[in-house]
Amino acid sequence: MQGYEHTESTSELDRFPREEFSFLPHVVQLLDKVSSGKNEIEIRNMTKKLKEKFQRCHQILQELPGADLSREEQEVLLRTEKELLEKKRAARRKYSELPIMQSK
């Protein structure tokens, strides 16, 4: 876990392209074409696109924050981040209760 600095925002998960990991429709289309035995050029193009899709997914997974960490290391990092968040929330509550922060 050393050397890992958490710099990614939680909104990173919102931008995670889950639809990129949907392979079944592409595989079924490719198998239909192969079983028909027609249009080798189209089969070749579909195979190339599927391979490119696999490569994009591999790239996404390689760039995923924390993917280089073990499950245990991710859990430790998560606990640490949650503790830090709770400390910041407590500090915010404390400061919001100061007389200067109270509006009349």
UniProtKB/TrEMBL annotation:
UniProt entry keywords in alphabetical sequence: Activator, Nucleus, Transcription, Transcription regulation
Subcellular location: Nucleus
GO molecular function, one term: transcription coregulator activity
GO BP term (any one): regulation of transcription by RNA polymerase II
Keyword check for Nucleus: yes
GO CC terms: mediator complex
Pfam families to which the protein is assigned, alphabetical: Med9 (PF07544)
Statement: the UniProt record of this protein carries the keyword Transcription: yes
InterPro entries: Med9
Top-level taxonomic group: Eukaryota
Quaternary assembly: Component of the Mediator complex.
Function: Component of the Mediator complex, a coactivator involved in the regulated transcription of nearly all RNA polymerase II-dependent genes. Mediator functions as a bridge to convey information from gene-specific regulatory proteins to the basal RNA polymerase II transcription machinery. Mediator is recruited to promoters by direct interactions with regulatory proteins and serves as a scaffold for the assembly of a functional preinitiation complex with RNA polymerase II and the general transcription factors.
Family: Belongs to the Mediator complex subunit 9 family.
Name of the protein: Mediator of RNA polymerase II transcription subunit 9
